[in-house]
Amino acid sequence: MIDTIVVFFENLSSLQKFIWIVGCLSIFWILEGVYPLKKHQYNKWKHAKTNFVLLFSTMLINVIFGLITVGVFLWIDTTNFGLLNLVDFPVWVEIILAIMILDFTSQYLVHYLLHKIPFMWRFHTVHHSDTHVDVTSGTRHHPIDFIFRETFALLGVLIAGLPVSYYLMYRILTVLFTYFSHADISLPTKLDKAISYVFISPNTHKFHHHHVMPWTDTNFGNIFSFWDRIFGTFIYQDTKDIVYGVDILDAEKSEDILYQLKAPFKKGLKSVEYKR
To answer: Is 210 in a helix, a strand, or coil?
Structure first.
């Protein structure tokens, strides 16, 4: 059974990945219309347009990184480089370890650095400038922010010595959790809290999108929440107190794509709250 799954992901086509992305977006778009966490009065399609333009730009970058990643996988296969090539664990154990390593390096670690290193933070502000967080917000990344993320994903692949099948399993999971955690859906509080003990739940990630410190510098994870718990960056409070956006960019221009692309290059871009 597990071998069949591995073979399936080894041969996963671009069309299948695209269908997965569209499917996840569509499902959570529908759910947040039926069970919204915050009843915002805004034009969802206009809001989505800005985020989809940014998604298109990152998809182009992803093509380039995809070509680089193919070369990395070939090199790993030839040299047997990486942690998983030093051990002989059952396949299911290797898959879990691979997902954990990638979730830490290409999600938690780089996300933490995006907040702590001023130059990286400049580009990450575009993600945080969204004043109406919903499922499409998961696609909202400045191209240079996305390059940082993909570079750390490659680092995770090298450290672990992953085969392509494990990597694609991770990518499929991270798409699901990205849209799940950003979706404007209201789960029963007990259920959301239960999920948050292991995974990043919708409520958990919403605190990260609060417009000022200290909540903005919490809940950095994407799939697993235990990284935040281990490193002391986890919080869970009342979602009614959340105000979306970021205090150093013009909230009125949250949907202005040119403003968002140029904003990281503004001189003196810093926050009193962040003490950058």
So the answer is: strand
pLDDT digits (tens, 9 = 90+) for 214-246: 899 999 999 999 999 999 999 999 988 999 998
User: Is the Cβ–Cβ distance between 103 and 221 less than 8 Å?
Assistant: yes
Model confidence over 94-145: pLDDT tens digits?
A: 999 999 999 999 999 999 999 999 999 999 999 999 999 999 999 999 999 9
Q: In terms of Cα–Cα distance, which of 38, 254, 26 is closest to 127?
A: 254
CB 155 within 8 A of CB 83: no
3-state secondary structure (DSSP) of residue 36 = strand
Cα distance between residue 149 and residue 105, in whole Å: 9
Burial of 81 (0-12, 13-18, 19+ CB in 10 A): middle
Secondary structure (3-state) at 88:
coil
Give 170: exposed, middle or buried? Use CB within 10 Å, 0-12, 13-18, 19+.
Answer: buried
Burial (CB < 10 A; 0-12, 13-18, 19+), residue 6, is buried
